[in-house]
Structures are given as C-alpha cells and as structure tokens.
C-alpha cells in the first residue's frame, strides 16, 4: 500500500454497518488525514473518553436517529493502552462491529516503544522509508537511528563541528519539529562521543526549544563584539561571558553560511531579539543589521517590510496540517503588531517602492522621510490579509471538524487544556496547577503583553504555542469549553450563559479523581481581587486553580480607535504590572502556570443589523445563533453572503450564522473590534506555560 492510511481505511465501507467499535491505543484514527477521509465517506467519529459526555452525545445524536430507522455510519474510538474493547458499554459491544489498529501492525520490523512517541504527522515519512529500505527486524537503538535518519534527517555521526550541530538544531527548532524524548536521548548519547561537544549543554538545547534560543541570544552580543573588534580575546576582557546562563563555548559561528541563512528570520519572527551596540552605525551596514538596535522606528519598519515579504510565500494551503496554521498564526500576529505600531499615516519621499516589483528593496528604509507606515505598506498588508483570510477559510471548512478529536497532549483546542494539565499533574506527582484565562486576548495582544512582561521579569521562562478556540468564537462557547474540558455539545443547557462555568471546571477535575476541596475558580480577576487570590493560594488544600482575567475583553469591547488603540491600552495594562504580580504570587505558592485565551478579535466593518426581534438566541456582532434551520435561513436571505456554520461539536439546537468576511452585524460602514467569526485572528489563541528559569 502507498500509505499507512490505506491500511486503516480499507476497513471502512459506507452504509454497511451503522456502528463500528475501534480499539485505537496509538491514536491512528484521530490523525487529520484519516479523520478527513472518514468524514468524506460519511462516517462520524465519537471518542469514548468521558463516559458521561459520551453517553449524552451517543443517545441524543445517534441512538435517537437509529430508533427512528435512520442510518448513520458511526465510529466509536477507545483509546485504551491495549486492543481490549471490553471497557466499552455492553449495549455497544452487542451490536457494533469490532476493529483494532496499532503501530505494531503498521511497522512490524521497528521497535514499538521507539515509534509510539512519534507525532502522527511523521508516520507518512516513516512508512515511505519502510517501503523504500525494507528494514529487517530492528532493535531499539537501530530503530532510533533509522527514525532519526529517515524522518528527521539527522545522522548524529556526521555532526563533527559546532556549525554542524547548530545547523541541525536551527532546522528542528525553527520548524518546531517535535522529537520524542527517547530519540533525543539517543541523539545526545552519540553527540557525547565527540569531545568537541563536551562543554555544550546538549541536554538543554537539543530538547528544549526556548532554551536553545536563549543559548543563542546570550551569545549574540559576544559575536558582535568579536566582529567589531576583530579579536576574540576582547570578549573575555570586557566580561561579556561572566553571566552566561548556559554553559558551553562563548563564541558561536553565526557567520558560517549554514547558520547565517537563519539569522534574519530568527530576529524577524521574534525568536531572537536585537541588541544595542556602541558601533551600531557600522554594524547596520552589514548582514547583522536585523540583530542590532539602530533607531526604534526605523527598526520596526524594516522588520515589518521583511517579515511581510517572508510570510508571503509561506501561507499554508487547504491541505496543510493544523500545526502549519498554528505556527503561521504566530508569525502573522507579529506582522499585525508591527503594522499597528508604525501607524497608518506617513509622509512619503518622491521615490516609493514599487509593489508590482514584488517588494524589491524591502529591507531598505532610505526612501522614507519618516518611519511611519506608508499607503504602499498599508496596501501590502491589506492584500496579504485577504490572501490569508481566503486560504484559512478553505482550510477550516475542510479540516476543522477533525480538530476536537485530536489527542489532548499537546493540546490542539482549548477544551484539551484541562486534560493536558491533568496529565501533567499525574506525571509530576503532587504538583499544583493554575489556569489563567485572559478573556478576548488575541495572539497579537498576547505578543504586546509578553513584551512588557519580559521587560519586568526577564528571569522567568515562557514556553508558548498556539491552539484553536471553538467556533463560533464567543465567550459562552469557547471559554466554557476551556474550563469544562469538553466540546460545547456536552453542556447544551448552559451554552448561552456563563453561570455554570465554575461547576463545569470543578466537575472535570472531580471526574478525574480530585475532590471539591482541592479545586477553586475565580472570575473577574483584577487588582481588587488580589487579596482573594492570596487567601485561596495560602490554603494548602487547593491544588487546582482556574482564573478569569477579563480586562483585555473590556478594553476590546470599549475600543473606538481600532487595533492600534487596543494594543496601546493593552500595553499600558501590562506595564501597570498586575499580571506580573499575579504570576509572581502563583509561582511563590508553587503553582505550575498555564495561560491562555478563549478567542481573539478583528477590526470589522458593519454590513447591516438584522431586524429580527427576539428570534436569535445570541445577537453578537460577528455571529447570530438560531434555534432551528428555518429561522437561520430566514435571516440569511437578507444577508446572502453570511455563512451557515455547521454544528461541529455544538448542541443540536445551536445554529450559528457568521457575518461574511471581516464584517459585523452592525450599522453599515460602522467600525468595531469584534469576535465570533472564523478568521485566523479570532480562531487561534496563545497557550503559554510560565515558570522560573
């Protein structure tokens, strides 16, 4: 077979049996390509994880249809450690067809303990390597070497010099490729045979992306000093190596051609940060210009120009993986922040960049009289935004339905967060965890907050990734899902209110073996409630803390000055230091901190307000919710470009109508910052872990 998916999909023929039970210990049926293929064949997938939530969905959505004589193709997945289906309810076992799939069947000649930790997106490459090279039965170490070579393109024996190692690590960490710990251990073991790397902190920088970039960051000023002085010994004379956090050689070959090709992008995308240098006027005329501070406004404009040009060719398509869009969302958020930092009005010089020449000379700022953004750059930004909106719409219509069944570690959607936290607690023993949810904080707003936060507390370590919120991207749907640890269809009675959010939070943890006395929840957290958080965290019984900070959401809904004004107010809020004090308190009380948001927001323009009286259950700016198809279609006839969003993971009587494009259901041409739709900025939010370095 050409693909491992063929091995799985050959068992699924539509309209043969209404219920198929699958033992899936390795999560093969939740892989994106499998989910999409099954959906295209008419199969629906229901995971048996939480027995109560499963029973509610099964009885209300499927059993009721079967009782009426209607036929559906339902696949129930059990993610037990073995192929044993006996954990499923008897009534399912009695009527369902039984199947099982595991990695051992797909890769019989490779060591199962080695390959089980691979991300499912790596299986395509591994399967093709198996077909091509036809390995005999391999042991643990030979399987590790086979996977490192053919999946991650790493041959440790060929890494002999620092630039060889840096090239490999830059490729891995820049692309955010996840290598399982068992493979990292093998990689490091082989590297340690080379005395060249004796002093290197391999255990940190190989497996830890943030540590690797911190390692590079603290050596960048040393490299610049050596570059301007022409003498390596000047580095130690000036004491630049005295306070290095990471061991290893102080001098890194940033100028090696294998390394240099990454440098611009690392600074452009915020993985490394420019530094001040007394000879910046000289350095600004060299290839290191992206990594030095020259003039704040010119630096921002130069970075914006280059970053827009860089991401123009990297927009994922409709066939992209969800990881591709999550990585891209971070880069796009950087562009949004830079664009609104520079302002929208400029005095242009007589010579302007020609957009039709594919942004030639994008790194030059000599043509500008000021460092504000030009009308030309506004046009570039607008065109780029339209391309992203179009590509993301195609992708999310095709792939969104497969996201909520993804494994919860690492989390892909906000309702995976409690399960990821629970697994962390189980693996670490008696840890305490806190979830800080900043309502309405888009990824671009988070970048603004993070910048100020890290100025105040550079000693803290931030590990950030992106996850998807729930659609429609409104608080009762997405925020409740984040605290409930379940899709919205599992809390239909509270879908239009937040009153039961504390109950849903507690219920999740109680269902996983904790007691009510160990759980706490506080909403509306701000300066006035600091004493409340202090009292709660002093209680040694409290191990699980859920906090809602709604300041950013309030800023958003009161904003009349667009995203630039919102970023300014969010930055001011971050400077005031409340969030930092809250995090300090939680770290002091030994909480592991997870920080996220429920949805983002966009600048939207009014397309007209539906005159619908009280027929809509929710009357948001970007979405209307109706209890049945008739009412929704009635309003859609007046707004033909609006989108009838399918009930993916939503209650049966919860039917969203989304405002088209970047518009809102408000008076025509009125401007607003709003949420509820399916744009990238609304749908993808930060998921951050904060700890002491």
From TrEMBL:
Superkingdom field: Bacteria
Q: Name one Pfam family in it.
A: PglZ
Protein's recorded name: Uncharacterized protein
**Organism this protein belongs to:** Candidatus Jettenia caeni
């Amino acid at each position: 077979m050409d693909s491992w998916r063929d091995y799985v999909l050959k068992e699924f023929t539509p309209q043969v049996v209404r219920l198929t039970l699958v033992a899936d210990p390795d999560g093969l049926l939740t892989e994106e390509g499998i989910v999409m293929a099954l959906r295209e064949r008419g199969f629906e997938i229901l995971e048996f994880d939480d027995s109560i939530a499963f029973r509610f969905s099964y009885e209300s959505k499927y059993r009721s249809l079967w009782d009426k004589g209607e036929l559906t193709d339902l696949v129930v997945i059990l993610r037990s450690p073995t192929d044993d289906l006996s954990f499923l309810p008897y009534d399912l076992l009695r009527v369902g067809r039984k199947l099982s799939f595991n990695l051992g069947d797909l890769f019989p000649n490779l060591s199962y303990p080695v390959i089980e930790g691979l991300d499912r997106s790596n299986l395509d490459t591994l399967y093709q390597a198996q077909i091509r090279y036809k390995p005999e039965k391999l042991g643990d170490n030979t399987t590790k070497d086979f996977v490192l070579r053919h999946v991650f393109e790493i041959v440790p024996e060929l890494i002999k010099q620092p630039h060889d190692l840096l090239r490999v690590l830059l490729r891995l960490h820049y692309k955010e490729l996840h290598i399982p710990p068992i493979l990292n251990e093998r990689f490091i073991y082989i590297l340690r045979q080379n005395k060249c790397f004796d002093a290197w902190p391999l255990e940190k920088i190989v497996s830890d992306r943030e540590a690797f970039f911190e390692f590079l960051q603290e050596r960048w000023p040393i490299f610049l000093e050596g570059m301007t002085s022409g003498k390596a010994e000047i580095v130690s004379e000036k004491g630049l190596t005295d306070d290095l956090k990471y061991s290893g050689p102080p001098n890194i070959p940033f100028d090696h051609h294998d390394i240099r090709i990454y440098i611009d992008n690392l600074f452009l995308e915020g993985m490394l940060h420019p530094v001040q240098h007394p000879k910046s006027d000289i350095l600004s005329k060299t290839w290191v210009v992206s990594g030095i501070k020259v003039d704040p406004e010119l630096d921002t404009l130069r970075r914006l120009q280059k970053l827009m040009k860089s991401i123009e060719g990297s927009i994922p398509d409709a066939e992209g993986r969800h990881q591709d869009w999550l990585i891209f969302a971070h880069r796009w958020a950087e562009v949004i922040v830079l664009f609104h930092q520079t302002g929208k009005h400029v005095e242009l010089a007589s010579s302007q960049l020609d957009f039709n020449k594919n942004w030639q000379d994008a790194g030059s700022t000599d043509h500008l009289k000021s460092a504000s953004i030009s009308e030309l750059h506004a046009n570039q930004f607008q065109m780029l935004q339209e391309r992203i909106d179009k590509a993301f719409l195609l992708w999310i219509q095709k792939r969104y339905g497969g996201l909520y069944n993804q494994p919860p570690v690492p989390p892909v959607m906000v309702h995976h967060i409690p399960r990821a936290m629970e697994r962390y607690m189980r693996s670490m023993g008696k840890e305490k965890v806190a979830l800080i949810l900043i309502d309405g904080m888009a990824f671009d707003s988070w970048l603004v907050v993070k910048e100020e936060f890290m100025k105040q507390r550079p000693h803290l370590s931030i590990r950030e990734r992106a996850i998807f919120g729930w659609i429609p991207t409104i608080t009762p749907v997405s925020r409740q899902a984040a605290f409930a640890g379940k899709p919205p269809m599992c809390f239909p009675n509270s879908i239009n209110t937040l009153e039961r959010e504390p109950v849903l939070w507690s219920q999740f943890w109680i269902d996983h073996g904790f007691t009510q006395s160990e759980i706490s929840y506080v909403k509306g957290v701000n300066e006035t409630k600091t004493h409340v958080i202090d009292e709660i965290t002093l209680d040694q019984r409290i191990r699980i803390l859920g906090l809602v900070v709604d300041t950013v959401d309030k800023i958003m809904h009161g904003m009349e000055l667009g995203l630039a004004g919102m970023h300014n107010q969010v930055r001011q809020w971050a400077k005031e230091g409340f969030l930092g004090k809250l995090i300090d308190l939680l770290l002091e009380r030994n909480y592991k901190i997870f920080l996220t948001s429920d949805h983002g927001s966009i600048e939207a323009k009014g397309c007209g307000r539906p005159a619908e009286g009280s027929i809509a259950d929710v009357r948001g700016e970007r979405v209307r919710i109706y209890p049945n198809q008739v009412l929704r279609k009635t309003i859609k006839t007046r707004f033909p470009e609006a989108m009838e969003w399918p009930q993916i993971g939503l209650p049966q009587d919860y039917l969203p109508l989304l405002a088209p494009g970047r518009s809102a259901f408000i008076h025509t041409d009125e401007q607003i910052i709003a949420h509820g739709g399916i744009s990238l900025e609304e749908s993808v939010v930060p998921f951050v872990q904060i700890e002491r370095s």
